[in-house]
Amino acid sequence: MKKIYLFFLVSLILTNLVFGQKNEPNYPHISSGRLETHYSIIIGSMKLITNAENLVKIATLKGYETEIIPFNIKNNLFYRVCVGKYNTLKEANKDINKVKIDLKISNAWILKVPNIVANSPEAQKQEMTKAKEAQKQALTQKHIADSIAKVTKEQEMTKAKESQKQALTQEHIADSIAKVTKEQEMTKAKESQKQALTQKHIADSIAKVTKEQEMTKAKEAQKQALTQKHIADSIAKVTKEQEMTKAKESKNQSKNLAQTSTGGKSMSDSLFQSFNVSFKNFVENLRDYNYSEANKYIHPEKHLFVSYNQESSPSVREFVNFEKFFAVFSVFTSKGSSYDFSLDLDNLLKKTPKLENYPYYNCDKKAYNTSGLIVSEVNGQDSKLVADTKLYYRNMNTELIPVMEQRLQEAENLISVSVICTDNKFIDGLYFATINGKWYLILMDLKITCK
After folding, report:
1. What is the largest CA-CA distance in the chain?
2. Where exactly does CATH 3.30.70.1070 map onto the chain?
3. How far apart are CA 259 and CA 391, in angstroms?
4. What pTM value is reported for the model?
5. Strands 367-368 and 373-377
6. Taking a C-beta distance cutoff of 8 angstroms, is the pair 107, 27 a contact?
7. Structure-derived torsion over alpha carbons of residues 347, 348, 353, 355, reported in degrees to the nearest 10
8. Is domain 267-445 classified as CATH 1.10.10?
9. Are strands 373-377 and 353-355 parallel, antiparallel or unpaired?
10. What is the percent of the chain with per-residue pLDDT over 90, rounded to a whole number?
11. Quick check: 6 pLDDT over 90?
12. What are the C-alpha distances in Å from 239 to residues 93, 244, 245, 249, 451?
């Protein structure tokens, strides 16, 4: 009790000192005069007047008309900060959002404010003095009561904290024991799980190694089987190719024998002589690189086709003149070298053409069945122009377009005469056609025979 009384006495002295120095709000509270009302926007409600005065300063700096209105709620004094005076609620509602934005506040409301107009300034001053005295007395009593209540509350809170601390200590001990027990159980469980996983890992590893060994054996067996099959297929393929080669040779031999027995030479002497003149003229101009004359033997629409070896497959090129031919096959223009194209042309001019059946070349013997400069009346298919071109495109993983195939077929169908020199080095065959009574070179075969 002595402590409470001492605290109460100190609080009373401090309260008197504080309230003796503090300025009270200047609000007219007058009991006499006429009553008027207006609407104001409330921007804050504070328990401390200093806070209310600070808010007034902020609003004033923004250009607003402000006032502080104190009011009491259940013996608690608050200070309302009002902005503006509006005659109607509509006018106040119109400005409330602008006030929130300008003053950066989220909460504001509109209040209907009574205003008592004093009869005289002297009466107003007296009323205000009385109001301040009453307010000061009420605050002093309230402060004393609050101080007593605060001390009582602090004592109760101290006891409650002690009880709570004791309870928490006991609870902490129990929790610690439970935690240690749980950790021990979890450690045992982890050890058991780890042991089980280790055993499973060993079993999985053994199973994996066993499976890999079985797969390796299976792959080896499969590889051995494929190797044996590949050997068997290769042997079968070689055997089949040999049989097909022999059959083809037998067929060609039979064909040549048949042509020999029936005469085979249907070309008239006059036509043969006419061809020889044109052939000799063409070869001489080509040997001398007289392109303007040699080009006369290339048809302006049918053109000249040249077949040659590209690695182990036939290739076909199309030319409109011999300038482009020698530009592509420039190696043939090397005079005196082993690739001198003119040596074959000289060989063609030295020999006397013979009208015979189409020569047959034996790949095993590496020789023709005849010798010399052989002129033959042939079927266009003997030139293999279309067949070689199709094979050329297939080797490039594509197909010969129909328009090109039709052109080649038309050119092949025109071929009627072949010239083969059996001991030439480069020119394997020349294939000619008569178009409108004139001889034209359709195909020059530069392939290495049987390659």
Report:
1. 162
2. 2-157
3. 29
4. 0.44
5. unpaired
6. no
7. 110
8. no
9. parallel
10. 39
11. no
12. 109, 9, 10, 15, 18
For the chain, give every residue range classified as CATH 3.10.450: 267-445
Cα 331 to Cα 339: distance, rounded to the nearest angstrom: 6
Q: Does residue 343 contact residue 283 with C-beta atoms inside 8 Å?
A: no
Q: Which two tokens stand for residue 146?
A: 């609050």
The tens digit of pLDDT for each residue in 44-89 reads 999 999 999 999 999 999 999 999 999 888 889 999 999 999 999 9
Give which of 28, 186, 223 is closest to 115, Cα–Cα. Answer: 28
Using CA atoms, how far apart are residues 324 and 339, in angstroms rounded to an integer? 18
With beta carbons less than 8 A apart as the criterion, state whether 375 and 422 touch: no
pLDDT band at 254 (very low <50, low <70, confident <90, very high): very low
Mean pLDDT of 291-300: 95
To 5 degrees, how large is the angle CA 450–CA 362–CA 318? 40
pLDDT top residue among 222 and 112: 112
Residue carrying structure tokens 């509602």:
93
The CATH class, in words, for 2-157 is alpha beta
- Residue 205's Cα: distance from chain center in Å? 39
User: Tokens for 407?
Assistant: 């052109």
3-state secondary structure of 83: strand
Both tokens of 149, joined, read 């209540």
pLDDT of residue 310: 67
CB 435 within 8 A of CB 414: yes
User: Which residue in the block uniquely carries the two structure tokens 């929790």?
Assistant: 175
Bridge partners of 39? 86, 112
Q: Give which of 356, 377, 364 is closest to 422, Cα–Cα.
A: 356
How many angstroms separate the CA atoms of 135 and 77, rounded?
Answer: 9
Residue 373 and residue 419 in contact, taking contact as beta carbons nearer than 8 Å = yes
CA angle 417, 421, 424 (to 5 degrees): 140
The Cα–Cα gap between 223 and 229 comes to 10
